[in-house]
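Field reference: sequence -> structure
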Amino acid sequence: MGNANISNVTIRPEEADFFAKLARDWWNPKGPMASLHQVNPVRLAFLREAIDAHWPGAAREARPLAGKSALDIGCGAGLLCEPLARLGAAVTGVDASAENVSVAAAHAEGMGLDIRYMAGEVAGLDIGTFDLVTCVEVIEHVADKAAFLKNVAARLAPGGLLVMSTPNRTAASRVLLVGAAEAVGYVPKGTHHWDDFITPEELEALLAEVGLTVTARRGIAWRPGKGLHLSDDMALNYILSARAG
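Structure field:
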């Protein structure tokens, strides 16, 4: 874990404990983390578009991340790490919850995937830099977002690619992501705290402060008959890519 002077910028202990309690059910597509399984293909579609746009020639490759390193910050039980490994990356997953990391490592082993998992805060781990850094549904659980993003940017190698997703702070997200989603059991109660959500404009400004430029931004929306999909509508959730410079 990080030392005392960075503890206030990372995942709040109560947030880590909350998700740790769900660790054993993380890979159950019909369990309490079912919403993550449903949104994962949408995130991966954006991620593949971002990879293809960032690295020349990647679009022609089945394993476009071969020879590249990837870091997933707040990896949970590895729902994003495993697809990254299948795209060819040497993957490291970091999570504040040791329980999550344990579940992730066991699942990866069962899938025959060589993924390095580490428990702790990214700021307190000596892990170097990476060609690709992903951080999905994490920053809304962080107290000091500016300091957190400074640590995220420090993990990005020159010419690297960052992909982040997070809920937007809108009237719609307050009603649907916090109120309705918890009421019907779509996400476990206590998953979201609306006041901690960040708008795309706020996030883009904070990324600029740490030397990163947003290159693409899409909404993750839902509608009957289509389900979750990439959209220009960012009222509920959005995903973006950024590069250094």
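Note: The helical segments are 13-20, 34-54, 81-86, 98-110, 145-154, 171-183, 200-209.
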